Amino acid sequence: MSELLFGVAGVPKGARGTSSEAGVDRVRELGLDAIELAWVRGARMGEEAARSLGEHARRRGVLLTAHAAYYINLNAETKEKRAKSRNYILQAARTGALCGVRSVVFHAASYMGRDPEDAYRVVKDQVEEVAGILREEGNPVTLRPETTGKPSQFGSLEEVLRLCAEVEGLAPCIDLAHLHARSGGAFNSYEEFVEALRRVEEALGREALKDLHIHLSGISYTSKGERKHLMLSDSDLHYGKVLEALCRLGVRGVVICESPDQAADAQLLQHTYRELCGSG
Ligand SMILES: [Zn+2]
């Protein structure tokens, strides 16, 4: 990608209605660039509706991504539950392809008390199967496992990068608020953000920084990790330092904001980034 785009998760406040189309229109009105469709209970859209949403977004020049279901756990105890989880990702990628989403983001798994290395192998098998099926179908959507906010969840930076390096068709979703919360307050300085981005580059090559998917919002946390998303101004996360690191390393791609008023914070991020970095 040639730019760093800023967008929102879900239909933002102030939209005229609750439809994704209304969300797209609001994003355009606000001068933002992207919307991450919140398919957190599954992608339930029919084929015609998906195609028409895609057309609507293209006409307005708004980039679409999607967030797959929250129930996904590729490390679930039973075969049936793992199959269901694979299906949620397949369904999101198939519906996503119909409406032209660029990426489908998902939380891969919980450890379920397993050794992280064992969990990794189970998750990798599942993701390989899903990616293989989508490749055979000619599905162009990029699957993006996300760095998660709790140490009980699969999804440290290392795990996400390793998965993306080892499975074809994957790229990371780096949720910087989650990394901050997961680590109990680390990942909060310019140096740490640069270091995290350097690790992306080392694992996946320079091109990964030229098409990166980032989540950024305020967050509160305890020793068990993420508690809830907050507005950036109510959080201790140094988002300005994140933006500085993104600017300095020439990162391109999409930054999606998940704060409670996601549009206001996405605009704050976009504005701050432009001040720090020229027009980007
Ligand atoms: Zn997420």
Describe the structure.
The protein has 280 residues and is of the alpha/beta class. It has one domain: TIM Barrel, CATH 3.20.20.150. 46% of the residues lie in helices and 18% in strands. The protein has helices at residues 20-29, 47-60, 79-99, 116-136, 157-166, 176-182, 190-204, 206-209, 239-248, 262-277; strands spanning 4-9, 34-38, 63-67, 103-106, 109-110, 142-145, 153-154, 173-175, 212-215, 218-222, 225-230, 253-257. The strands form three sheets. An eight-stranded parallel beta sheet has the order 6-4-3-2-1-12-9-8. It is globular, with a radius of gyration of 18 Å. The mean pLDDT is 96. Bound molecules: zinc ion. Residues 67, 105, 107, 146 line the site of zinc ion.
CATH fold description: TIM Barrel
The CATH top-level class label: Alpha Beta
Question: Low-confidence spans: pLDDT under 50, at least 5 residues?
Answer: none
The ordered H/E elements are EHEHEHEEHEEHEHHHEEEHEH
Counted beta strands:
12
Overall mean pLDDT: 96
The number of domains = 1
Shape: globular
Instruction: Estimate the helix proportion, in percent.
Output: 40-55%
Structure annotation, total helices: 10
CATH homologous superfamily placement: Divalent-metal-dependent TIM barrel enzymes
The small molecules bound here are: zinc ion
- Overall structural class, as computed from helix and strand content, comes to alpha/beta
